């Protein structure tokens, strides 16, 4: 669900942005920031892109069925009004 490579890139960018006096702690900072990022991202209520795409497809199919049913109801109402 969460791309570990992306988290590593973010942690590396954070450590590279440290002032030069703190560069000696960059490795430890990078590892800890990676852990913090992973923990915080896991707390978020997210779905994978694959799951999102599947649900989007299901929603599209459901919408198509709903529109078809609405058209049938409209047609039946026309017939009912025409005979009544």
TrEMBL record:
Pathway membership: Cofactor biosynthesis; ubiquinone biosynthesis
GO terms for biological process, alphabetical: ubiquinone biosynthetic process
GO cellular component, one term: cytosol
Main location: cytoplasm
UniProt KW keywords: Cytoplasm, Ubiquinone biosynthesis
Domain of life, source organism: Bacteria
Keyword Cytoplasm: yes
InterPro entries named among the record's database cross-references: UbiK
Keyword Cytoplasm assigned: yes
Subcellular location: Cytoplasm
Matching HAMAP family: UbiK
Protein family (similarity comment): Belongs to the UbiK family.
Known role: Required for efficient ubiquinone (coenzyme Q) biosynthesis. UbiK is probably an accessory factor of Ubi enzymes and facilitates ubiquinone biosynthesis by acting as an assembly factor, a targeting factor, or both.
Name by which UniProt lists this protein: Ubiquinone biosynthesis accessory factor UbiK
